[in-house]
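From the pipeline queue, job 12 of 40. The input is one protein chain; the requested action is below.

Action: predict structure.
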Amino acid sequence: MMIPNYTLYQSPFSWRYASNEMRTLWSEEHKRKLWRKIWVALAKVQSEFGLLPSQILKELEAKQNEINLERALEIEKLIHHDLMAELQCFSEQCPNAGGFLHIGATSMDIEDNAEVIRLREALEILINKLDDLLALTAQKIRLYAEIPSLAFTHLQPAEPTTLGYRIAGFAQELLLHSQNMRDLKKNLRGKGFKGAVGTAASYVEILGLHHFDKFEQKMGEALQLSFFPVSTQTYPRIQDYQVLVTLAGLGATLYKFAFDLRLLQSPLYGEWNEPFSEKQVGSSAMPFKRNPIQAEKIDSLARLLASLPQVAWENAAHSLLERTLDDSANRRTILPEAFLIADELLLTAIRILKGLKVNTNAIERNLQVYAPFSASERLLMKLVQKGANRQEMHEVIREHSMRAWLEVTAGKPNPLFTLLQSDERVTIFLNDEEISECQNIQSYTGIATLRAQQIAEAIEKYLQASGTYSP
């Protein structure tokens, strides 16, 4: 019998992507190891309450990690129940102790608690990668905090910002996502051990009502997991939705970063470039192409990630009465896919940021071409300070700007300030030198440098407090 390689998670979408660490976590083998971990913990705690002999635990522990997928799948082919097949396989491996497994439990006492442990482990992997990305953004902010760069609104030239400030906006969102992800991980809760409909009637029957709280507390300690005080056959599926919304939110920030990079990498802007190796091929037909494939991959995968919370929402909303099974099949896909995608998004963003190329010549070219337009607000404020009517001056500058655009789009130098210096409506308030001084937009970046440095400092302090960064 040929058995697929279950060491790594297999998926029609993400098998090429994500780290081996994340794919191993979502593998069939790791899932079954978690199931067995919970069965052994359940047997151990129940032995403390006198429900089974303590000497049987050694046999269970000895076979706990000996996953036999071939045998489990043979059983599943007959009984059509994956958890029961694994339980029977485990029991066969433990002829003396196997009969004591799963006492009082229902499938979801094992599966749901294992799933939350896996969600917690997966979040830890993402948090570590997100911390690496945050540290990189802080470095880039420090490097580029003072370098002026043209800002764009509506994809049109606007006023100057700085490179560091643009990166700081991205980093600020990543910091929020890291904080949210840590809070989410800390607050994840399992179903607990409450049986078929969540009333824990089976456990109360064998333990007594007065022992149940202590029993569930000990199970939580054994698994290092908090439990919902109230559940049905499953933990509330709204928790899955909260997890996927958090990952999709991270995807939105990475999507915007990648989209901005795609724009800035266009030769019409030409300011940023993702890494492009010496032997890399951009197109099978056009050898000259330098397509932004890494940024495009981020946007492609993030778009898929954004669709997954809707399925989780429907699972939560359609979890009728104490349980329906119409969430089971899709959860086997949406949970691993969401984490695999998020993992690959972070890996790709790290790779891009490490090798990011900044074309200072293009930045200076764009500033030079559009600087007169960018300086128009500065000129407007200077005119008002000299006593001019703000609305009237706005219209004067707008008229000349429209004429200047015609020259710029024809490939000629920007004549805006030459036009303004010849307009008596302007020169009655400012002389030529005062008008020319307004064109110095290198210093017209307001708080950009200061606030960018502050964001870098906040990130560094946050990572130091988290124990993941040292200066």
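Job complete. The mean pLDDT is 90.
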